[in-house]
Task: inverse folding
């Protein structure tokens, strides 16, 4: 996640909590139990990923029989849902291959080609040989899935090709000759740069907001300490301070939501073009190395790649160290230190199953954002030095405004 998004999400949440729970320390104790915040947040993705339902062959057969009955009645949507439940109940059992093929066939009939592709791939990933009975004859389930997979991929890709973002990426790939070694990675780079350019005004506004809030921290801390036992009065005076300085304490919300929406959109763009990304490579991401290090190196940009993910996590950590805005609050310093470790580790687990094309997009976006923020920080420091201010200069609110409100 780019540094602006990391800081914004963290600071927005903490400011919202401040109106109810007082100091940062109290809020951390209330919500996370103090020192337990780091292990809890780091282990949470691991614990969630391990919450897998135990196989239940009896439930799988029950759902399977229900699905067959629904299919005979012509209720294809309900039948597909029941087949999926059967597969979820026991995705490695004796019915898994037969149910997987049925999911793929029904999904194709309903024009849900992405679901069909995933079903056929799941059958191919099953351990051992899988022989099923169809109309009284024995067939190889994996061979059948392999035969159906390519047409399903073509249908899914054709369905996605009607989208504007797909056409844009495909145009860049076509202009560079559809070279598997650089065309697809170059398309991601160009698309990322364009997204970054579009977000530049928002990025600058965020930077100014961050510096302004940092300058207000001493006054906010003084109010919180003075009125620690009078929550309503503390909240009232904090809001008065925000109004006086022209700062909206929840002003980060809209920008954060917009950036999260763009993040979700970008995942959709990568997913829609994923069948084409199977033809694209990037440096070490290629079939040759993937055969040597299966599960570590991705064969193409449509598959996860561990080295690229580690590289992204490292860039995330470095960017936080380079672009952190200094603060005199020891509690915030401790918080920044914890977050610089937690976020890279968390995203290392969260993104481990994502296509490497998406990880590459985030890596490029993170590097561009870090460079941009470093430039803005140096420019702002130069302007403050020229104005005679060493830590915010004339932009820092006068302390007498706080004293005036104490009367």
Result:
């Amino acid at each position: 996640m780019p540094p602006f998004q990391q800081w914004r999400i963290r600071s927005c949440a903490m400011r919202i909590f401040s109106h109810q729970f007082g100091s940062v320390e109290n809020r951390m104790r209330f919500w996370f139990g103090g020192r337990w915040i780091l292990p809890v947040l780091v282990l949470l993705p691991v614990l969630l990923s391990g919450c897998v339902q135990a196989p239940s062959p009896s439930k799988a057969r029950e759902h399977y029989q229900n699905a067959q009955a629904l299919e005979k009645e012509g209720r294809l949507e309900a039948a597909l849902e029941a087949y999926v439940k059967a597969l979820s109940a026991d995705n490695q059992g004796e019915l898994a291959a037969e149910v997987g093929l049925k999911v793929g066939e029904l999904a194709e009939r309903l024009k849900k080609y992405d679901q069909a592709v995933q079903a056929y791939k799941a059958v191919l990933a099953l351990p051992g040989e899988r022989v099923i009975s169809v109309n009284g004859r024995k067939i190889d389930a994996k061979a059948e899935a392999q035969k159906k997979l390519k047409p399903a991929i073509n249908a899914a890709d054709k369905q996605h090709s009607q989208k504007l973002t797909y056409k844009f990426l495909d145009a860049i790939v076509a202009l560079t000759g559809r070279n598997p070694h650089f065309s697809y990675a170059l398309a991601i780079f160009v698309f990322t740069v364009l997204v970054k350019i579009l977000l530049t005004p928002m990025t600058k506004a965020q930077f100014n907001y961050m510096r302004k809030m940092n300058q207000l921290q001493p006054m906010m801390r003084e109010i919180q300490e003075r009125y620690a036992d009078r929550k309503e009065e503390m909240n009232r005076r904090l809001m008065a301070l925000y109004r006086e300085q022209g700062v909206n304490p929840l002003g980060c919300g809209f920008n954060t939501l917009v950036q999260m929406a763009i993040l979700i959109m970008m995942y959709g763009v990568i997913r829609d073009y994923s069948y084409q990304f199977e033809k694209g490579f990037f440096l070490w991401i290629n079939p040759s190395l993937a055969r040597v290090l299966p599960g570590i190196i991705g064969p193409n940009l449509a598959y996860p790649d561990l080295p690229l993910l580690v590289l992204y996590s490292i860039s995330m950590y470095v960017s936080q160290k380079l672009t952190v805005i200094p603060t005199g609050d020891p509690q915030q310093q401790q918080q920044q230190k914890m977050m610089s470790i937690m976020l890279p580790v968390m995203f290392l687990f969260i993104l481990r199953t994502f296509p490497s094309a998406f990880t590459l997009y985030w890596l490029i976006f993170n590097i561009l954002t870090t460079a941009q923020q470093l430039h803005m920080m140096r420019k702002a420091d130069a302007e403050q030095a020229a104005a005679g201010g060493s830590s915010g200069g004339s932009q820092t609110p006068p302390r007498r405004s706080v004293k005036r409100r104490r009367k």
